[in-house]
């Protein structure tokens, strides 16, 4: 995984990002899309204590939550920019929700979706150099400092 580290925050360049909600999307070889919280998002939220994730088979409309996360200082949704059906959720998060904090782009992934209209939905996300530029702007604007692991 190619990544930039900026102010301690990891930004993998090959992922697609919803910058304002700090959610990442990874296109999988089987046509599904893996979803998770960014390093910046988990840093701002704090240590996760509870996770609720839509079950497999559930359709998630664009803009509606795939999951909700709870930390000691924050509770909020992980909204879907990519509409689709949940095909898998990360069951490990129910026992160890702070995997999101410890490994947001790896073991801390949240769910996998079978997209309904991937090509159209990807237009609402950024990737590559554009994503890195916008993530750096977000980090500076919000005053975020991540802890490198």
UniProtKB/TrEMBL annotation:
Residues bearing PTM N6-lipoyllysine: 73
InterPro entries linked: 2-oxoA_DH_lipoyl-BS, Biotin_lipoyl, GCV_H, GCV_H/Fam206, Single_hybrid_motif
The entry's keywords: Lipoyl
PROSITE patterns assigned: BIOTINYL_LIPOYL, LIPOYL
Residue span, Lipoyl-binding domain: 32-114
Claim: Chloroplast is one of the keywords in the record: no
UniProt cross-references to Pfam families, sorted A to Z: GCV_H
Gene Ontology biological-process entries: glycine decarboxylation via glycine cleavage system; protein lipoylation
Cofactor dependence: (R)-lipoate
One Gene Ontology cellular component: glycine cleavage complex
Cofactor: how bound: Binds 1 lipoyl cofactor covalently.
The keyword Metal-binding is assigned to this record: no
Coiled-coil regions listed: none
Family to which this protein belongs: Belongs to the GcvH family.
Purpose: The glycine cleavage system catalyzes the degradation of glycine. The H protein shuttles the methylamine group of glycine from the P protein to the T protein.
PANTHER family listed in its UniProt record: GLYCINE CLEAVAGE SYSTEM H PROTEIN (PTHR11715), GLYCINE CLEAVAGE SYSTEM H PROTEIN-RELATED (PTHR11715:SF3)
Complex formation: The glycine cleavage system is composed of four proteins: P, T, L and H.
Protein name: Glycine cleavage system H protein
Species whose genome carries this gene: Hydrogenobacter thermophilus (strain DSM 6534 / IAM 12695 / TK-6)
